[in-house]
Amino acid sequence: MRHVGEILSTIADVRFGRRSVRAMIATILFVIFGAGTVSAADIETAIAEERQGNEKSVQSQERINTVDDQTDDMASQYRAIIDQIESLRVYNAQLAKLVASQEAELASLDHQIANVTVIGREMTPLMLRMVEGLDQFVQLDVPMLSKERSERIAGLRELMDRADVEDSEKYRRIMEAYQIENDYGRTIEVYQDTLQIDGEERTLDFLRVGRISLLYQTLDGEEVGAWDQSARKWIKLGSEYRDSIRKGVRIARKQLAPDMIRVPVSAPEDAQ
C-alpha cells in the first residue's frame, strides 16, 4: 500500500504539482485504506477522470479568457464611440452657430434685394440729371476738345438706354466723365483741330491752359488767337503773344521744361 501511495504522489507531482494535489492524494489514500485493496485499473480510471476534469477546467478557463478579451474589446469600442459622440456634439454645436450666422446673412441679403428696385428707381433719374447737367456744362464751357467731349456725352446717353448694362456700370461711367472734366482744369494740353477764320477752315494748334485760357496758333506760328469767354467768340492776338504761345505749345508737348508763359486771361466777374 505504501508503494501505491508513492506512485500516486509521483504522478501527481509530475502532472499537477505537489501543492495542488495533496488533497487529492489524501482522498485517494483514504479510499484505499478504507475500502481495502484497489486494482491498478481503478487507479488508472481515477487518474483518467481527474485528467478529464482538468481538461474541462482548462477549457473553461480558455472560454473565460476569450469572454474577458471580448469584454475588453467591447469596452474599448464603447469608449471610442463615446469619444466620437462627444466630438459630434461639439461639431454639431459649431454647425448650429454657422447655420444661424448664414440665416442672418440671408435675411440681410433678402432685405437688400428687396431694396434694389427702390434704389434703381431713385438712381436712374439721378444719373439722367447728371448726364444732362454735364451736357449743359460742356456747352457753356470754353470750346476745347468739342468733338471728343460731345461724343463722350452722346455715349453716356446711349448707355443709359441699354438694358444689358447694370446701374453700377452706368454710374461708374458717368463719374468717370465727370472726373475727366475735372482734370481739364489742372492740366496743360496741345492738340490740333480745325477752325473757321475769315470764312476759311484752317488746321490749327490749340493750346489749353487749364480752363483759364484757350489759345491757338497757325501751323507756321505766325498768327495767334484766343477764346474770349465773355464774348463767346475767337479773337486774334497781337504779335506780343506769339513767342509765349509758341513756348507754351512746346511745353505742352514736353519739348521744354515747365516755365512761366504770358497768356491773356479774362477778368473774373462778380457772382450775381
Explain the layout of strands and helices.
Elements (H helix, E strand, L loop, with lengths): L1 H14 L2 H18 L4 H101 L5 H15 L6 H18 L3 E10 L2 E10 L3 E6 L5 E5 L4 E4 L5 H11 L20
Helix pairs in contact: 1-2, 3-4, 3-5, 4-5
Describe the protein in words.
With about 270 residues, the chain is α+β, with helices and mostly antiparallel strands. The radius of gyration is 57 Å and the shape is rod-shaped. The chain contains six helices and five strands; from the N terminus they run αααααβββββα. It folds into three domains: about 1-70; about 120-185; about 190-250, no CATH class. Strands 1-2-3-4-5 form a five-stranded antiparallel beta sheet, covered by helices on one side. Residues about 10-20 have low confidence and may be disordered. Strand 2 (about 200-210) and strand 3 (about 215-220) form a beta hairpin. Helix 3 crosses helix 5 and helix 4 packs antiparallel against helix 5. It is about 65% helix and about 15% strand.
Write a brief structural summary.
By secondary structure, the chain is an alpha+beta fold. It has helices spanning 2-15, 18-35, 40-140, 146-160, 167-184, 242-252; strands spanning 188-197, 200-209, 213-218, 224-228, 233-236.
What structural class should be given to the helix and strand makeup? Answer: alpha+beta
Mean pLDDT: 81
Strand order of the largest sheet: 1-2-3-4-5
Computed CA radius of gyration, to the nearest angstrom:
57 Å
Order of helices and strands: HHHHHEEEEEH
Task: Give the total of beta strands.
Answer: 5
Instruction: Flag low-confidence runs.
Output: 11-21
Q: In total, how many domains does the architecture comprise?
A: 3
